[in-house]
TrEMBL record, chain A:
Domain of life of the source: Bacteria
Region of interest: Disordered: 242-266
Originating organism: Nocardioides hwasunensis
Protein name as annotated: (Fe-S)-binding protein
A Pfam family reported for this protein in Swiss-Prot or TrEMBL: CCG
Basic and acidic residues biased stretches: 255-266
Residues of the Cysteine-rich domain: 3-83, 134-218
UniProtKB/TrEMBL annotation, chain B:
Record bears the keyword Iron: yes
Protein name: Lactate utilization protein
Native organism: Nocardioides hwasunensis
UniProt feature, compositional bias: Basic and acidic residues: 478-493
Keyword Transport recorded: yes
Length: 266, 506
């Protein structure tokens, strides 16, 4: 089986550690994952803001980059949802028959990470170790657009050492919503403030989710509040093992010392 | 004597003001969560809920597919049953018909059953201009009308008010328009309802003409259906001599049997009740029983415009249950007024643009008043895919600006993004630039994010909307793409520039 990683543009540019964690995790599970270098973005930012014409070349680039793979795995419920539900709309709009055919091929074989691990690989215990108090936020697109159900929780429950606590009002949107976070920043922040409050109420040290864009929003609020909660992508927890646990997502020792120095200066 | 939505600012501006109203926030959070939980509990009791939703959507879809035929059947059945059918292209025509009926009976007041269609066409204001007072008899509508307020919810138009505010409105205003509230009025719900009942009773007994809408119009039998909880509707539909019903053309269903799924879906979705308390049905005139003169105004007012929209037409399936409002995280925080229409919340965000087009700034802002979280689609009893319609409406807003001589900054940014994202080499260069910017930001930043990453600091321009309330990590020194190329996918030595070893290829 030829498996491609669609790392997503947000992870590529802003959260490379998540991509590295997916690579580490999938290799540990026996998957020789490839990274097609021609990939860029799933086109969701354009589509969801109403720029369908602008999305056409981006979708074309997507289907070209991932042609020939048996599975495309992405650490984002939102991007997987965009590929599976929106690419066909964009192709339809383009009027390009070849693009429609190509989309019909790539869309169904694109999986969100937990779908791929649970459904395709048939694994729920990925052999991870993560001895922290963690709460999980099901992002809207993974929950309602894709319907990943309890797959993320099942994977997390199997992690050794983890203390998983329920998030109150978990299924309510965090308020990110792509360009919504900027176009309706006040409402977005009001929603995020309530989500952050629920996260703090759990007493968790780490908030985990399957979409770094939502985590960037909630984490940005928690950070501004100096709430003492960090955010991590699900892949980074699942990639953690006894030997590496100190590192992924968290600061390496040197970085921590460096940030302490910086904090002292400010 | 009531407010108006005319001249409301675009959604983000109206929302900002609403978000600062602490009383509103508190009232709404309490009310939406209560009704949301109630709905969830009674829906969970129905094992075949999904099949029921499909059946409900099917009934409405079938009616819309052949709307012209069903409307003609409806007109024929109604006429046969003794009703007079009028066709109104728009709000002005509909209001003129109702006013004409009232004038022909020489009345200066009518009683009203709660109706969205009459709110949509601004009937009360139009009648007022003709010297006719229109008395709302639904409790929440009465509160809005007495408070010279605007409705903020489809089912509970006064949802933004709590009982202390209601008491104050009753004490202050009831005496101006009829029987005053008792001086010892408390804010107990039963006491408030009692005062409303006494106040309304004299209006029910006096009125010669009533105005209603309809939840459903059955084509084959010529039957109109009104579904309500308080019994005020039943009073209006049976006591007066003349009844005028303003009915949107999308309310038609083909047969009496089609009511079956609809009447099972509606109460559980709407009020969270298993069965509806007062369901009134009438077919034209029944000699010696109820109104002896019955008018039905079939209203277009943008509905054929919506019907012509391939993606958006599904919004015409809406049965106005308001479940989508009650679960909407945006509605819960900003309330209904910010949408600038009698149709607020997720359905309002698509219906107003569909009925009116997106040429004015306020309506064009509505499709963006959503995080696309999908909670509305999940609860909608007739399976309207509101998020997909929102995205399609956004595209219509964008397309309507494609000819602009000076493009919006957003359009320029999206074009640039499309150019960058169409070719991985261009994206790689952009990431290199952002990595360099990240190093610079890192030097100036005073903030470290929990977990150790450096924050980007406060940014200027549109990004200030983000960093005003949220920290943002500075871009990393190396993108994933660069890491993969440098380490051959983490298969050889993975020393990053800070000298720490990351467990990339283990
Ligand atoms: S869109 Fe659906 S959920 Fe919303 S009011 Fe209409 S029928 Fe109810």
């Amino acid at each position: 089986m030829r498996v491609a990683l669609q790392v997503t543009c947000v992870n590529d540019a802003m959260f490379p550690d998540t991509g590295k964690a997916v690579v580490r995790l999938l290799r540990r599970l026996g998957v020789d994952v490839e990274f097609p270098a021609a990939q860029t973005c799933c086109a969701q930012p354009m589509v969801n803001t109403g720029y369908f014409d602008e999305a056409v070349p981006v979708v074309r680039n997507f289907v070209d980059a991932f042609a020939g793979y048996d599975a495309v795995v992405t650490p984002s419920g939102s991007c997987a949802g965009s590929v599976r539900h929106q690419h066909a709309l964009v192709a339809e709009r383009s009027g390009d028959a070849a693009l429609k055919t190509a989309v019909a091929e790539t869309a169904p074989k694109t999986y969100e990470l937990t779908e791929f691990i649970v459904d395709v690989l048939g694994v729920t215990d990925v052999g991870a170790y993560f001895p922290h108090r963690v709460t999980y936020h099901p992002t809207c697109h993974s929950l309602r657009m894709l319907g990943v159900g309890d797959r993320p929780q099942r994977l997390l429950e199997a992690v050794r050492g983890i203390q998983l606590v329920d998030l109150p009002q978990a299924e309510e949107c965090c308020g990110f919503g792509g360009t919504f976070a900027l176009k309706n920043a006040d409402t977005s922040v009001a929603m995020g403030a309530d989500k952050a409050r629920h996260v703090r109420d759990t007493g968790a040290e780490v908030l985990v989710a399957g979409d770094n864009s939502c985590l960037m929003h909630i984490g940005g609020m928690l950070s501004r509040q100096r709430a003492g909660v960090r955010v991590m992508h699900l892949a980074e927890i699942l990639a953690s093992t006894e030997g590496t646990e100190a590192e992924p997502g968290g600061p390496a020792v040197g970085e921590r010392a460096e940030s302490a120095k910086k904090g002292g200066r400010g | 004597m009531s407010g108006t939505f005319v001249g409301m600012p675009a959604f983000p501006t109206a929302a900002r003001a609403a978000l600062g109203d602490t009383q509103l926030r508190s009232n709404l959070a309490h009310a939406t969560h209560t009704i949301r939980d109630k709905r969830a509990a009674v829906v969970a009791e129905v094992e075949e809920w999904e099949e029921l939703r499909l059946a409900g959507a099917g009934v409405k879809e079938a009616a819309l597919r052949d709307l012209a035929t069903h409307l003609e059947t409806l007109e024929a059945s109604l006429t046969r049953a003794g009703a007079t059918v009028h066709w109104a292209r728009d709000a002005a025509e509909a209001c003129a018909i109702v006013a004409q009926v009232a004038h022909s009976h020489g009345v200066d007041e009518v009683v009203k059953v709660k109706s969205m269609a009459t709110g949509e066409i601004g009937l009360n204001e139009a009648l007022e201009a003709e010297g006719i007072a229109a008395w709302e008899t639904d409790l929440a509508e009465l509160i809005v009308q007495l408070g010279e307020d605007l409705p903020s919810h489809i089912l509970v138009p006064a949802i933004h008010r709590n009982r202390a505010e209601v008491r104050e409105i009753f004490l202050r205003r009831m005496g101006d328009v009829g029987r005053p509230a008792p001086a010892d009025l408390t804010d107990e719900p039963a006491v408030l309802a009692g005062a409303a009942r006494e106040h309304l009773r004299e209006k029910f007994l006096r009125a010669k003409v009533a105005v209603s809408g309809a939840n459903f119009a059955v084509a084959d039998t010529g039957t109109l259906v009104v579904v309500e909880s308080e019994g005020n509707g039943r009073m209006c539909l049976t006591l007066p001599e003349v009844l005028v019903s303003v009915v949107g053309i999308e309310k038609v269903v083909a047969t009496w049997g089609d009511l079956d799924p609809m009447l099972r879906l509606l109460p559980r979705s709407s009020t969270g009740e298993r069965m509806n308390p007062y369901t009134s049905t009438w077919s034209g005139v029944t000699p010696g029983d109820g109104p002896q003169e019955v008018h039905v105004v079939l209203l277009d007012n943008g509905r054929t415009r919506a019907l012509a929209d391939d993606v958006g037409r599904q919004a015409l399936r809406c049965i106005r249950c308001s479940a989508c409002l009650n679960v909407c995280p945006v509605y819960e925080r900003v309330g209904g007024h910010a949408y600038g229409s009698v149709y607020p919340g997720p359905i309002g965000a698509i219906l107003n643009p569909l009925l009116n087009g997106v040429s004015d700034e306020q309506t064009a802002s509505l499709p963006y008043a959503s995080s696309l979280c999908g909670a509305c689609f999940e609860v909608c009893p007739v399976r309207i895919d509101i998020p997909s319609v929102l995205v399609d409406q956004r595209a219509q807003v964008v397309d309507s600006h494609r000819g602009d001589r000076i493009p919006k900054a957003e359009a320029v940014a999206m074009k640039a993004a499309a150019w960058t994202f169409s070719d991985a080499r261009r994206l790689g260069l952009a990431e290199r630039a952002s990595g360099l910017a990240g190093r610079v930001m890192g030097r100036f930043s005073r903030t470290t994010l929990p977990g150790g990453r450096t924050a980007a600091g406060r940014l200027p321009g549109p990004a200030a909307g983000w960093t005003g309330a949220r920290d943002l990590p500075a871009p990393p020194k190396e993108s994933f793409r660069e890491w993969w190329a440098r380490t051959d996918g983490g298969t050889h030595d993975d020393q990053d520039e800070s000298g720490t070893t990351k467990g990339g290829g283990s």
